Amino acid sequence: MRTARSKMASTSRAHRALVSCPEHPDAPLVEDYHAGDMICPECGLVVGDRVVDVGSEWRTFSNEKSTKDNSRVGAAENPLLEGGELSTMIAAGPGMDCRDEFGKPMYRNRRTLNSSDRALLNAFHEINQMADRLQLPKMIADRANTLFKQVHEGKTLKGRSNDAIASACMYIACRQEGVPRTFKEICAVSKISKKEIGRVFKLILKTLETNVEVITTGDFMSRFCSNLGLPQSVQKAATHIARKAVEIDLVPGRSPISVAAAAIYMASQASDDKKSQREIGEITGVAEVTIRQSYKSMYPRARDLFPVDFKFATPIENLPTQ
């Protein structure tokens, strides 16, 4: 490749029209961003150099997708941390510790975090992992992070595990965003027991003086029926059954999740897509005996629970009695 320096070479895009190949003036020039050159595609002549390189300042050789490419100045600053995660400090005090062997000020990257920021980072990492496992959007993880920071700054839950607080914050965030998850589902993706998450959950509500919407059977019905592979007609019938059972007080003291599980069992048994109590229990996290007890309370009034337009594949009199 021949190399020539043109006096008209310019690194600005506005002046690109002034740069041309002396032998092929009409040829559109090709810009090599990595080399910083402008090249004629016809003869390979470099007609302009010293073009600003807009590529990455570091190169990543790892094939792992999770590895961050440290291009330019790195990731955005986390607003939940004080002063950001990384800053550059210039030592400016007296003494030889602040200067190098030539007496020049030393430049240091502050990579070490104080204990408060380190606890926040660990909690944020745990919350983001839980959100990924539950396949929840970033919006919910951000709300859980904010809740954790509020609790952490209040210092009213000292002695409680940060992992337990993070799990409870995730549970609260899900309910506040209208996509509630059960304690068992949160427990399955965290390292904390269901009982401890429940205790911390109540403490956080009292500490932050906040509230969450009351859970109803309809909050879980769509997700449970979808995971069970049930059609829309069965989901609609199960929703109607659960709502009517609550309205006429057939299942007093039962949790909305157990009522939803029993309603799904009743609706599926009356359709062509029958599901066993074990299958429903695996998806909903409700014990088979709990489903059986709730269903037993609802069965005597089954005729009043089904919607009018439901098409029975199995008549009500042939449904299981328990």
Number of strands: 5
Order of helices and strands: EEEEEHHHHHHHHHHH
Radius of gyration: 32 Å
Category by helix and strand content: mainly alpha
Q: Care to describe what's here?
A:
With 322 residues, the chain is mainly α. 42% of the residues lie in helices and 5% in strands. The protein is built from 11 helices and 5 strands. Strands 1-2-3 form a 3-stranded antiparallel beta sheet, with no helix packed on it. Helix 1 packs antiparallel against helix 2 (138-154) and helix 3 (162-176) crosses helix 5. The longest helix is centred in the middle third of the chain and has 19 residues, at 115-133. It is flat.
Question: In terms of topology, how is this protein built?
Answer:
Elements: E1 30-32, E2 37-39, E3 46-48, E4 87-90, E5 107-110, H1 115-133, H2 138-154, H3 162-176, H4 183-188, H5 194-208, H6 218-228, H7 232-247, H8 256-269, H9 277-284, H10 288-298, H11 302-305
Antiparallel strand pairs: 1-2, 2-3, 4-5
Helix pairs in contact: 1-2, 1-3, 2-3, 3-5, 6-7, 6-8, 7-8, 8-9, 8-10
Protein traits:
single chain; mainly alpha; three-stranded antiparallel beta sheet; flat
